[in-house]
Structure formats: structure tokens, C-alpha cells
Write a structure and sequence with these properties.
Length: 536
């Protein structure tokens, strides 16, 4: 039987968050992406996150090389800041937006530069700044190096090569994470690729220059522990030499075996190469000054994009995300729990499916997904956000009571494939909100010609919609007709009959909860979605 071993730590108030950091830029990660503008022109975007209690960032310069790390940059350009910085929102309402000399918080900056890159087998785009903070898992903070690669010329035998146009994937979630000690957290690194290329995620060693990795520090060691002497029982901890790309943070472990000998196993850190998601359970919180870096860790993820060209998958670009973990003590707060079931509304059809199951959707047609979450702490309110969503045409509406509706309408020209949207449920705990991010996956298929599409149900006019106490709607065909009203799980909650003039009035019972409902005629030819607000 597996049992969690929690290493002892000092359970104290969140001193990490309110200790004075050393005077440095304290950059907390970021990434470099690019978008094709046509005619070999590219807009390169740098997202940088820093501890906003540090000093101001220095200017950044974009360097573009086509000859490898040891060559002089072919092209350089200054990065220009776009818009004001954005303060992190992990703090509760009374502290949100806090950014001063005593509070550790993230501050996001966006910079862009536009360059012309002639076709080449491989361009390396980079920028760096000597501003790494002190962290537990690397030995000597140096430059924080950002990198992306681009191939805009593909080798074709017998030719000078095939030029291609490519834009890099863009991540949907910021790379600076607050993670609670001894609680399992799921962190998304989901990215959206506008070209529909296949994405592969990998954990990498952070870099301080081109092809120059940082040096990982020793992983905390522990000696054999005597659990009891009568009967004799001891624990042999898992032996790990150093932090690594695949285990960049100190985590809890399971125990295996029975007395008299138990052993450590299975560090609670997992990575999904399909989605970039990380699940981790930090194993200690030291509550030392922020400048010591004892509760902070760095990591890196590379997103590689492949395109099918001439019958083969070809690597055409990479982006690297520099991640930053900040461990804190959340006390008695428990993270929100997202329901493993989703209610999916496509046209007039409502189905229930598992959270990890891909939702089919046709390009150009909307699909609506109801997401539910609960909180295990009494009196806390839950809301949903799309965080820094990069997936085009995805919107989120909070419905209250831990429920939200995600609507995704892939444009008609969306390439077929899997697209993921990161949805975050967050509570209102103080000083730091608990968060749970889950990925909702859509399988987009190409839009069928209009003549080949099935006839859609006729929409029914309804007013008011959303409604609170009652709603009226007018059918599109005359005569008395029967309509069935179902909840978001497809369960019938009422049957109503229209008047001879085809009007309908529905006044649901007071105990019927707020949420999304569907009214549909018996033959399915007419339907309308109804949103009931909470009664006042």
C-alpha cells in the first residue's frame, strides 16, 4: 500500500511572500515567440515575468543567428515594450495588484521586434539578461536566456530548398507559478499553434547562454530514519543526487513496503509530453527570506513543432519556456476540485463526457461546454478564468455557484487537429488564492460544404434570456406543440405546451437551480438555449 511521506518543514505564515528580496531584477521566467508577417518578415514577441519588488528591467536586444551559437548574430533589433506591465493576480481581492518593496509578486512585460529573416535551414532567435534570482535548484545564478528556433527553408533533394511560412506556438498560461507545499498542483504549459502544426513538449535544462546549461545543485539528502524500535521499523529514503530537468523541485514521495523496512519511491512530479502539463507536490517550505531563494525553483520546457511536408514530419521550430516555481504554505486552504464530467452542447444535442476526452467540433461551428468546480473550504467563492488564453475564438462566462460556460468556435480555416484550452478554477482564499487548472481538448474537423451539412435546428426567439423567474418564447411554426426542457446534463426537467399562436411561457419551479437549459420541439426541428440566473 502506498503512503505519502511528508518531510518536516516549518509551518509558518507565508514569510516567503513578505520578506525583503535582494536588490536585483529577479526575473521569473518567460518565453520568446514569433509570428510570420509575410515576405520573410517576422514579429518576435518576448514575454518576461519578474518579481515586481526588484529593480527595473534593462533593455533587451533580439539576436538572430543562422550559423550556430559560435557565430556573430546576422541580424539584431531592439525590443520595444508594448503596453503597460500587468501585475499577477494570484493574491486575493484585498491584495490583488500589490507590487511594492515587501511583497513577492509577478509583473508581466511584453516586448516586440520586427525583423526580416531570409530563408535558412535554421534561425536561432535569442535574448538574455543577467538577472536570474537565487533559487534552490541551481548553483550559480547567471544570465536568463530566452530562445526560439525557426526553419523557413526545408531541404528538398535536387533543389535549393523549399521556403515555408511558419508562426510559433503561443502558450496560454504564464510561466511563474505559486505552488502550495504538500498539495498536489497541476500546472499547464498548453500552447496554441495557429498553423495547426503538431506540438511535442519536453522538459529541458534551463540555459544561461546558447547551448550553455545551468548547473543543478545537490538534491537534499536524508538518512535512514527509525520509525519504531518495538517492533523494529525503519525508513530508507529515496536517493537522488542532484536536481535535474525531469525533477527540478523538491517534492513529497510515496513509501512502499512494510515494517521492518520501508522505502521511498515515486517522487510526486510528473510531466505529460502530449500537453506540457506538470503535476507536482512540493515537499518542503522553509519560510526563509525571499532573497535566499530557498522556496524558489527554476525549470524549462521546450515546445517543438512538426509539420507534415512531402509525406514526412519535419521539425520546423522550437520555443523554450523558462518556468519559475514559488512554494508557499497555504495553511488549511484546499485547492478547488474541477468536476471530471463536462456537459457538452453542440447544436441541439447535449452530451456528458469525461474531462480528458476530446470534444468533436466542426470548423466554423460553435460548441459550448459547461464546467463545474467545488471548494472544500466552507464559505469560499469560486470563479473560472481562461488565464492568458492563446486559443483563438474561445470565450468563458462565469455562471455562478462554481459553474462556467466555455464556448469555442474554431474559424472556418482552422486546420484539423487537437486544440486545448486551459481553464482555471480559483477560490478567494487570502493571502494567496488556490487554483486548479485543467485542459479541455477539442478535436477540430474540417468544415463540410454547405450542401453536405445536416439541416440545423431552427432557433426559437426567447426573451428575456438570460432570465430569472420566467421566460417566454415564440415558435417558428404555428399551432399547439410540445416542447421538452432539459438541464445541462440532458435530463428532462419540464414539458410545456405552446398556445395556438405558437407562444410559450415557462415559469420554472423556484428550487430548479440556475444554469443552462435547452428547450426543444418533439421532432428536434426547433430549439433554444435558456440561461437561468440565480433567484434574488
Amino acid at each position: 500500500m502506498h503512503k505519502l511521506l511528508r518531510f518536516s518543514c516549518l509551518l509558518a505564515f507565508v514569510g516567503l511572500l513578505f520578506a525583503h528580496p535582494a536588490a536585483a531584477s529577479h526575473m521569473q521566467g518567460g518565453d520568446l515567440t514569433y509570428a510570420s508577417l509575410g515576405n520573410n518578415q517576422y514579429r518576435v514577441t518576448l514575454h518576461v515575468y519578474r518579481d515586481c519588488s526588484g529593480i527595473t528591467l534593462s533593455p533587451f536586444t533580439l539576436e538572430c543567428r543562422s550559423g550556430g551559437c559560435n557565430t556573430v548574430a546576422n541580424i539584431t533589433a531592439p525590443f520595444v515594450q508594448v503596453g503597460p506591465s500587468v501585475i499577477g493576480r494570484q493574491y486575493c481581492a484585498t491584495l490583488t495588484g500589490t507590487c511594492n518593496a515587501t511583497v513577492t509578486n509577478t509583473e508581466a512585460f511584453t516586448y516586440t521586434a520586427t525583423v526580416t529573416l531570409p530563408p535558412a535551414a535554421r534561425w536561432t532567435l535569442s535574448t538574455a539578461q543577467n538577472a536570474r534570482p537565487s533559487t534552490t535548484n541551481i548553483t550559480a545564478p547567471g544570465d536568463l536566456y530566452f530562445e526560439a528556433t525557426l526553419s523557413n527553408l526545408i531541404a528538398v533533394p535536387g533543389t535549393t530548398g523549399q521556403p515555408i511560412v511558419n508562426s510559433s506556438p503561443v502558450a496560454s498560461v504564464q510561466p511563474a507559478f505559486f505552488v502550495p507545499v504538500h498539495h498536489l498542483s497541476t500546472l499547464s504549459n498548453n500552447a496554441f499553434d495557429a498553423d495547426g502544426d503538431s506540438l511535442v513538449y519536453s522538459l529541458e535544462t534551463p540555459l544561461q547562454a546558447c547551448n550553455v546549461p545551468v548547473t543543478f545543485a545537490a538534491y537534499p539528502s536524508a538518512s535512514t530514519t527509525v520509525i519504531s524500535t518495538s517492533p523494529a521499523c525503519f525508513y530508507q529514503p529515496l536517493s537522488i543526487a542532484t536536481y535535474s530537468a525531469t525533477l527540478p523541485i523538491f517534492v513529497d514521495t510515496d513509501t512502499v513496503g512494510t515494517c521492518p523496512a520501508k522505502a521511498g519511491a515515486n517522487p510526486r512530479f510528473t510531466f505529460d509530453a502530449r500537453t506540457g502539463s506538470i503535476s507536482l507536490q512540493p515537499g518542503r517550505f522553509l519560510n526563509t527570506p525571499s532573497s535566499s531563494g530557498d522556496d524558489k525553483y527554476v525549470a524549462a520546457i521546450k515546445i517543438s513543432e512538426y509539420r507534415r511536408i512531402n509525406g514526412s514530419y519535419v521539425l520546423i521550430g522550437t520555443t523554450r519556456r523558462e518556468l519559475y516555481f514559488m512554494v508557499y504554505d497555504c495553511g488549511t486552504n484546499l485547492l478547488p476540485v474541477v468536476s471530471p464530467l463536462l456537459a457538452v452542447q453542440s447544436g441541439t444535442r447535449t452530451t456528458t463526457q469525461a474531462l480528458g476526452q476530446a470534444i468533436p467540433v466542426t470548423a466554423g461551428e460553435p460548441v459550448s461546454v459547461l464546467v463545474n468546480a467545488t471548494d472544500r473550504n466552507a464559505g469560499q467563492a469560486l470563479t473560472f478564468t481562461l488565464d492568458y488564453n492563446a486559443t483563438a475564438n474561445a470565450t468563458l462566462q462565469n455562471l455562478g455557484n462554481g459553474q462556467a460556460r466555455l464556448t469555442f468556435t474554431p474559424p472556418l480555416n482552422t486546420p484539423a487537429g487537437l486544440y486545448r484550452v486551459a481553464v482555471t478554477a480559483e477560490d478567494d482564499a487570502c493571502p494567496i488564492k488556490g487554483m486548479n487548472t485543467q485542459l479541455i481538448t477539442f478535436r477540430v474537423s474540417a468544415s463540410a460544404p454547405l450542401a453536405a451539412r445536416p439541416k440545423a435546428a431552427q432557433n426559437i426567439a426567447a426573451y428575456p434570456n438570460p432570465f430569472t423567474d420566467e421566460v417566454q418564447f415564440q415558435l417558428g411554426t404555428p399551432g399547439v406543440q410540445v416542447l421538452t426542457i432539459s438541464d445541462y446534463l440532458g435530463r428532462a426537467v419540464a414539458t410545456v405546451r405552446s398556445q395556438p399562436d405558437s407562444s410559450v411561457r415557462w415559469q420554472p419551479a423556484a428550487e430548479l437551480p440556475a444554469g443552462l437549459y435547452l428547450a426543444r420541439s418533439a421532432d428536434g426541428s426547433q430549439a433554444v438555449r435558456l440561461l437561468r440566473n440565480a433567484t434574488r
